[in-house]
Amino acid sequence: MNHVEVIVPVAFFGMIFGIVVLVSYYRNKRMERTALIASGKDASIFKEEDKKSWINSLKYGIFLVGIAIGFIVGDALAVRAVMSEGIAYIAMVLLFGGLALLVFYLLARKNKNISGSGE
Predict the structure, then answer these.
(1) Which of 14, 41, 44, 75 has the fewest CB atoms inside 10 Å of its own CB, making it the most exposed?
(2) HSE (side-chain half, CA atoms, 13 Å) at 27
(3) Claim: this prediction has a pTM higher than 0.85
(4) pLDDT beyond 80 at 12
């Protein structure tokens, strides 16, 4: 059995599921905002989301760079026959992905201390 015969239906249904989840998420978000505005409440809650979005972007950016470095180092180890190919890729991606998350944690903690001391 060809692997493409399995991957295509799984990817197709996965995309449909993702679209349904995204549409329902944004519909609920719009309904919450509309209800908040209709009740006359303060809309400052939406400004907090902007602060979270840049920190999430930083986290995912650092994480993906760590994974890319893990693939590069894993490939270098596999080519030089230091480790078997599968183990080299898995170990290096996990190692550098974890290191990237630790770097993000240290940066976020440092940023929190700086912003907390200025207020």
Answers:
(1) 44
(2) 6
(3) no
(4) yes
